[in-house]
Amino acid sequence: MKILGINALNHDACITLLDGKEILFAGHAERYSGIKNDHLLTQEMISDAKRYGKWDKVVWFEKPWLKKSRQLWAGQYGEVFQSENLPSQYLKQFGIDKIDHYVGHHESHAAASYYSSPYDEACIITIDAIGEWETLTIWYAWGSHFEKRHSVSYPNSLGLWYSAMTQRLGLKPQEDEYILMGMAGWGKLDRNIMNELYEDFFVGISNISCACSSNTLGANGLNFCLFLISFIWSFIFFPRGSPNKLRLPNALGPNSALPFATPTILPLSSSLLT
Which residue segments constitute the domains of the chain, with CATH numbers given? Predict the structure, then answer.
């Protein structure tokens, strides 16, 4: 069965044509349009995919109506009350009249890392700015099964906070985060700046205590949440020469390491999944 997977109307539009486990074609919009992070598909990339034969199913990378519910809650009425950003409408211009499956945003991330990994069973951590509602998820995957074990939802978002730090330094959010990451290796701790950031972003925000309380997460979840806060903090305050990997708390299994990338996939840790 040939499946066409589509990501668009977000950023970095792309498509992949799969036949079983084989990737027949994969295209990135910016390679066609020359526009950095282009969020729109091009007719040329669709035509290139068609060279490999007709697909049987079309899959979209997120659930648009669930996303609109979050946009409504956030007051993004311009996004909510329009039909042009509905994938079923948008894809008609490319001759795609039907979307067979809508997959959750974070599940798409998790599946991409799991199916391209060497593991038959794994714990998957996905962290981004925001999906439909979720901003962080932890999955247990085996075979063709995905079981979500934990999630954090908007407005609590380490990814959005990371972008806020990028903007705070005069860089372009959702574009220049890699510069901030590179700068972290040369940084030195300045407690005045640290206190100012704490006052601006954390003091009086009850959502943080809610998201990271032992009552809501349990001991393992609390350890993991505290680790994540220190992980993002380290992008700014790591001294030069620090290693590019952090040791995870025991909640994620002994001797596991988390690279500076998301989503991250780890060998199965029974302590995390209990």
Answer: 2-103 (3.30.420.40), 121-267 (no CATH)
